[in-house]
Write a structure and sequence with these properties.
Elements: E1 6-7, H1 9-19, E2 25-29, E3 39-43, E4 48-52, H2 63-75
């Protein structure tokens, strides 16, 4: 069954500030029943990157930690 990611204005703004790129967009899919199925899709000028929440290290109680985890998964 297909999963549809929605544009995340907060995640997009966070990544734009951290990377300096005004061209990227970040989309998210959150599965409330199975967190390990949740993921981000980051679209840059020449790439589309999918990052599963299960691939990231973050504190589930902190949105800021989730954003930092996403950044680290892609750029570090």
């Amino acid at each position: 069954m297909p999963k549809y990611a929605n544009l995340s204005a907060e995640a997009t703004e966070f990544l734009r500030q951290r990377t300096g790129s005004s061209h990227l967009e970040c989309y998210t899919y959150i599965d409330p029943d199975r967190g390990e199925d949740s993921f981000f899709v980051v679209k840059t000028i020449n790439k589309v990157i999918q990052v599963s929440f299960a691939e990231m290290t973050y504190d589930p109680s902190s949105y800021q930690s989730l954003m930092e985890g996403l950044y680290r998964a892609i750029y570090e």
